[in-house]
Design goal:
single chain, alpha/beta, Rossmann fold, 2 domains, six-stranded parallel β-sheet, 6 strands, disordered N terminus, binds magnesium ion
Length: about 230
């Protein structure tokens, strides 16, 4: 039997919430770009460079991804440029027209801004990737601050990341809501002691919603726009 959550009445007391910590890719921006980039475009270029079929290229690439997934290297443009022999930064720049917001997110951000809460993007994106995405979306106009985990030396999946973030931003965990589409990241935030960590279940508009094992989950931030007024 499917258990559905009553998302119109989330167990978060919004009046007490003064800080929103927002993941970028898959939470604010459509992960369709990243999935296309890493699972289609990069394997194709990689295969062409080595004379491999698409299937063999994808299998080789996925094996390389699996070795570093969840670590800072996984998110590092320099690592993949070196590892794959492709100019990842340049490729991202060429494909930048495909970068876009998830449906309803601009409205969510406008309402969140009007509510006078502090908005901070907390991303694993490498600074070069971040720069391309900000140039394309002007996402920075909606937020007070942006933290890339690369500044801290630890990915969001790592327990070491969270005390460093709290020290940097001086947020109160009880008055803060954190949003992310990655369950390992959500679990790290909960383990650290952030009581309100919300999973985004539909980070890629080309894919259906995913199942979530965490307590708080929504398909999209758009569902919460009425709550944050
Ligand atoms: Mg994400």
């Amino acid at each position: 039997m499917m258990v559905t959550m009553d998302i119109t009445n989330p167990p978060i007391r919004w009046k007490q919430i003064d800080t929103l910590l927002l993941d970028m890719d898959g939470t604010l921006l459509d992960l369709a770009f990243d999935n296309f980039f890493w699972l289609e475009l990069v394997p194709t270029y990689y295969g062409k460079l080595r004379g491999l079929s698409d299937e063999v290229a994808l299998a080789e690439i996925e094996a390389r991804y699996a070795q570093v997934r969840g670590s800072l290297k996984w998110y590092c443009v320099d690592h993949w440029t070196q590892e794959l022999g492709l100019n990842i930064s340049e490729l991202k720049h060429e494909m930048r027209h495909m970068i876009g917001y998830l449906p309803g997110v601009v409205q969510f951000l406008r309402v969140a801004r009007l509510s006078k809460r502090r908005l901070v993007i907390v991303t694993n994106a490498h600074p070069e990737t971040l720069a391309v995405k900000l140039r394309q979306t002007h996402l920075d106009r909606f937020v007070d601050d942006i933290v890339s985990s690369h500044e801290t030396g630890h990915a969001k999946e790592a327990p070491e990341f969270w005390p460093l973030l709290e020290r940097k931003l001086a947020f109160k965990p009880g008055n803060t809501v954190f949003f992310d589409d990655s369950e390992p990241v959500i679990e790290a935030a909960l383990a650290y002691g952030l009581p309100h960590a919300v999973t985004i279940r539909r980070p890629d508009t080309r894919q259906p919603s995913r199942d979530s094992t965490t307590e708080l989950a929504v398909d999209s931030l758009a569902e919460l726009t009425p709550d944050i007024r």
